[in-house]
Amino acid sequence: MGVLDELRARRRVVGSASALATDGQQPALLLIPDISGFTRFIEQSGSPQAPFLVADLLEILIEANILELEVNEIQGDAVLFYRLGPPPSVADLVRQCRRIYLDFQNYLRLVERDTGSELAAALQELALTLKIVVHYGRVSVARIREHTKLMGRDVIVVHRLLKNNIAGSEYVLLSDGYTRTQPPAALAAAFDWTRLSPGSTFYEYLGETPYQYAYLSPLRLLLNTAAPSDSAPTGRGRVLKVRRPLPVPAAYALRVVSNFRLRPQWMEGATAVHYDVTKAGRLGTSYKVDVLNGQIDFQTVQCLDDDEGHITYVEKISHFRLFPNALLFYHLEVVDIDTCFLTLELRYGHIASDLRLVRFGQLRRLHRFLGRSLIGLAELVAKR
């Protein structure tokens, strides 16, 4: 075997035990969630926080993964997922698409609730939404240094399908390559909440490419509809709040809560914090806090104040599995020159459990966590 042959053989190797076909290709599911309205939003929003919001939304798409998909590429306003092997059932696939869409929209709703935010105003005027393209075919998988590269005709197909003849920008598209793997009755049953329609688009070199599509708009009825089991004595809907006076000025309290280094000194169960010291103090900065036996990822989102001296500092919480896509608001209200009230408000999209008892228990546990953290903060600032 020559040098070139050896290099090609190595690049075809993938960390998978499945045997390759004679043409070096493997069956794979390809799925692309694509943010509609991305370019217009970035160009016309006028908000310096717009790129950070889009980065958050891409992270939301990745966190919504329940099919054990692999991320191949992040392409500006879209994520290319893949999974080698047989296709998932259409019921599982629809469950995945619904989760992606609902997590995406629920996060936007959380941001939009902040009516004083320039970013929220931009979202209300320049709507962002999601389309999802699904294809099943064969791919060649190559390792190029530390990167995995997907190649082949079907990779081209899934990208071309992003540009199609479907009216609107909020839908899921299933290629003929995927729908042919599923029984027609199963397809109909999985989309009983909307309408699955046929369509096709002609692409140069690919020819007429058939697909089926369904609008995601009916899922909007599920947004911000809090089930009774999602509430607790300390919160209504998808919000938890704790409130306490602090014996310091509001501006001082803000400096303490936004100081990453101090977080283990007042957050319940926190033992260490990890962050890039060169980026501390900037909006959009991410940091990690070791809490009990796990770790919580935070990202600073925005800091607002009004003419009455009220201050709102906002952080996004990532990889918080039972409460995905959560935002933590610190509302500071001036009482007098030496005192303020701090309200910790956690807003979450949903609780990632089907068990009512688990949801109720986790809400109570999270409320205790917030309450004890606030007590710790009050004790810390009292020592100043």
From TrEMBL:
GO terms for biological process: cyclic nucleotide biosynthetic process; intracellular signal transduction. Residues 29-162 form the Guanylate cyclase domain. InterPro entries: A/G_cyclase (IPR001054), Nucleotide_cyclase (IPR029787), Uncharacterised_Rv2561 (IPR020503). It holds the Pfam family DUF2652. Coiled coil: none annotated. GO terms for molecular function: adenylate cyclase activity. This is DUF2652 domain-containing protein.
